Amino acid sequence: FKNLKKNPDPLVERVSVYGNASLAMPAFAYTFCTALSVSVLKVLHPVRPQQPVVFFSPTYLRALDRFWKRRGLKEVRLSSGFILISTALELCESVHVYGFWPFGTDLQDNPVPYHYYDQLSPHRYMHAMPEEFVRLLQLHSKGALTLHLQPCSSDNL
Known about the structure:
Layout: H1 9-16, E1 23-25, H2 31-47, E2 53-55, H3 58-70, H4 80-91, E3 96-98, H5 129-141, E4 146-148
Parallel strand pairs: 1-2, 3-4
Main location: Golgi
Family: Belongs to the glycosyltransferase 29 family.
Organism: Cirrhinus mrigala (Mrigala)
């Protein structure tokens, strides 16, 4: 979101579709995230005070990183999606994961974007998306979460 302070409308519009759900920001994950996360909080709070903006604790993020590294995940940094899934596993009784697919095409050979909002590819030296996906498959096979790989239909909603 360019010019967030001058034009908060695109951000406000984007997050308002989620109602009063918390917006988790990686403010203390990396130094480049702090200023942007604080800006989001400053812009959103006056306009949508009912929508909490929460920051992950740096202690929690380090512990989560160590947890997965001890279990063989070899990557410089966990993806934001994997961090959120890990957090959901701690907080929720039932976790369903949609849209976490580390490959360039889906099972029907259609192109799959890395982010839903841009055309960027994952940084191959930062994230090990296929490795994260293997961990999710393992968690799925153990019943810890449900990984949905097929396209959603109205029957699934």
